[in-house]
């Protein structure tokens, strides 16, 4: 079982537990909205481009609303649990599901977990933390492209990734899982330490980050 399949199963278990109306860290989205988003992402490739391309975002949002309205919540969760259909690139290309979906499923799992009171970070296997760190190193320039300051992502125990920008630099230290949540725009729900000019730290914590 891959980390992607583990996160998929754990997320679906949590979605079943919470029902469709629970809050998430995705602004304005309930768990029902999040489930519809994941189904769209894996099964409506005609609409998925709008997740990343702003000029298509309106079409993507309308398709997501229709999916949510037309599909009972348990069926949405079941579709996510079953994974991408075999006719999609995720199903046709070996390893693509793990490559593309591991971080996505981890972040959305935490979006549901951390929207609940009393949450604590999970103790993830070292191998999973290594995978998240590797993906973070490759994607940090994209995730931090809107950062108003330079950023050094420093992993507890060693290793760092630098995204240089003009002006001050903030050092963000934490486990790869927490750094991932931070750069995905969940700064207020990431257990990290930020060091640098106080004004620069404040600007980074309030910035719109993520893909």
How would you portray this structure in words?
GO terms for molecular function: metal ion binding. It holds the Pfam family MDMPI_N. The chain is α+β, with helices and mostly antiparallel strands and 211 residues long. It folds into two domains: 3-113, no CATH class; 127-206, Nonspecific Lipid-transfer Protein, Chain A. Helices cover 54% and strands 9% of the residues. The protein has helices at residues 3-18, 31-43, 45-48, 57-70, 73-82, 89-92, 96-113, 126-143, 176-183, 198-206, and strands at residues 150-155, 160-163, 169-174, 193-195. The chain has a four-stranded mixed beta sheet. Strand 1 and strand 2 (160-163) form a beta hairpin. The model has no long low-confidence stretch (mean pLDDT 91).
Short synopsis of the structure:
This protein is an alpha+beta fold and 211 residues long. The chain is built from ten helices and four strands; from the N terminus they run ααααααααβββαβα.
Total domains = 2
Global shape: globular
Structural class: alpha+beta
What gyration radius follows from the Cα positions, in whole Å?
17 Å
Mean of all residue-level pLDDT scores: 91
Distance from N terminus to C terminus (CA atoms, Å) equals: 27 Å
């Amino acid at each position: 079982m891959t980390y992607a399949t583990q996160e998929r199963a754990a997320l679906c278990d949590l979605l079943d537990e919470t029902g469709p109306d629970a809050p998430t860290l995705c602004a304005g989205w309930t768990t029902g909205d999040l489930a519809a988003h994941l189904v769209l992402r894996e099964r409506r490739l005609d609409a998925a481009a709008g997740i990343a391309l702003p000029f298509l975002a309106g079409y993507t949002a309308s398709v997501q609303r229709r999916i949510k309205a037309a599909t009972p919540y348990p069926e949405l969760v079941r579709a996510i649990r079953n994974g991408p259909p075999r006719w999609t690139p995720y199903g046709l290309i070996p390893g693509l599901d793990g490559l593309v979906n591991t971080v996505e499923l981890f972040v959305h799992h935490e979006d549901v977990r951390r929207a609940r009171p009393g949450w604590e970070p999970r103790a993830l296997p070292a191998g999973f933390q290594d995978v998240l760190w590797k993906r973070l190193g490759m994607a940090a320039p994209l995730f931090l492209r809107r950062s108003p300051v330079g950023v050094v992502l420093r992993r507890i125990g060693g290793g760092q990734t630098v995204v240089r920008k003009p002006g001050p630099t903030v050092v963000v230290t934490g486990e790869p899982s927490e750094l991932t949540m931070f750069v995905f725009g969940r700064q207020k729900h990431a257990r990290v330490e930020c060091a640098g000019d106080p004004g620069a730290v404040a600007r980074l914590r309030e910035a719109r980050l993520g893909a």
